[in-house]
Amino acid sequence: MKIYSDFEKKILLHFFTNVDKDVYCATDNMPTSLWAFLLGGYSRSDLSMRDRFLKIFSDISMESKDSQDYEEIIESLCNSISVGNEYLEVILGKAENFMRKWAVEYSHSSLKDSAYDRIAIENVSIRATKILEDSKQAAFQEKSTRYMDFSKDNFYIPDSEYIFDEHHELLSRSMELYRIVLDRSVEYFKKNISREDFKTEAAWIRTCKAKAFDEARYLLPTSTKTSLGVTMATRETERWLSKLLAAPEKEIRDLAVQIQEECIKINPGLLTHVVANNFLNQN
User: Fold this and answer.
1) In this structure, are residues 93 and 109 in contact, taking their beta carbons and an 8 Å threshold?
2) How far is 228 from 133, CA to CA, in rounded Å?
3) What stretches in the chain show pLDDT beneath 50?
4) Deepest in the core among 56, 89, 208, 246, taking most CB within 10 A?
């Protein structure tokens, strides 16, 4: 886990619910358009969402004609969003009490459709993402096996007596095969895709690599770690968590607990009551 400076922690905690866990939510300070931009970055970046957030403003600082320090840029953004926070806390408190009473106690669930949860889930297995992406009403963005090199990634290994040395060896050999196929595929496509069809060398290389990733990705073990971004209305979060908390897989149940803990920081009046629902996992 990356260690952040005191300034970075201050800024990150303004926009995210924590700086030291693999599961975290965007706070109400996060502009919707910025969240969408960060979410889209999952498919083609090795950086965590928090690190990409800091990098955006670091890049702005380097590109600025005034050479403005990136700390000043982020600080000014926080200040502009934080105007009237004392009153905002009062308003949010009233809103929370209203939602808890009518949406939870009196079951006016449609009220939950107006509240949204924005969640970053990192260092999770590819297999787990297929279980987590269980909603037609949510938006999911996953680190793309079609565009990203997973050869340096590690694996999610559950605490289980059924995992032996030979299983670890099999995972290592699978990743070695992935690397071999990826490298040879890149060379193959470089020989068979004409450089003349592209305006730049970089565009040609990107295309060759993308086609190579698309060939090699089927060799990735499903325990390979990846990242997933989620955006959903709180009513759907409630159903989603109820199912995940009752999942037979320990990794999913553990993630569900972490997700609920972080979402409660954003919507405490709506998600504190959510419990496992075994019925949702019955086929």
Assistant:
1) no
2) 9
3) 83-88, 90-92, 94, 108
4) 208
